[in-house]
Amino acid sequence: EANVKDLLHVVPLFERLGDLSEAPKTMRRLYSCEWFLKHIGGRQECMLGYSDSGKDAGRLAAAYALYRAQVELTEVSTEFGVSLTFFHGRGGTV
After folding, report:
1. Contact between 90 and 52 (Cβ < 8 Å)
2. What is the pLDDT at residue 51?
3. Helix (H), strand (E) at residue 25
4. CA distance 4 to 72
5. What's the pLDDT tens digit per position in 40-92?
6. First to last CA, the chain
7. In what order do the strands lie in the sheet with 13-14?
8. Nearest-angstrom CA–CA distance, 64 and 79
9. In Å, what is the CA distance from 79 to each residue of 16, 20, 24, 73, 83?
């Protein structure tokens, strides 16, 4: 429709505490879209943010939420046969 030949690859950012806890559900929803799963070709990246999560929840709670998100995102991705790569974005405030 817009004459775009190559679709962009979407890399979701999960940073605040609420985002981290909802991340597995978000990715499950994306992976459930047949066109999205075909588009990514079995490979997906997710960015995990550290500065806002630390400000949002405190460093200890944020560290645990980041850990849980990684575990659960890996599980969801494995269910759908997707190889997941994490990109850790550490802002200037941490």
Report:
1. no
2. 76
3. helix 17-31
4. 34
5. 999 999 999 887 777 877 888 888 999 999 999 999 999 999 999 999 887 65
6. 43
7. 13-14, 43-49, 83-89
8. 23
9. 25, 19, 11, 10, 10
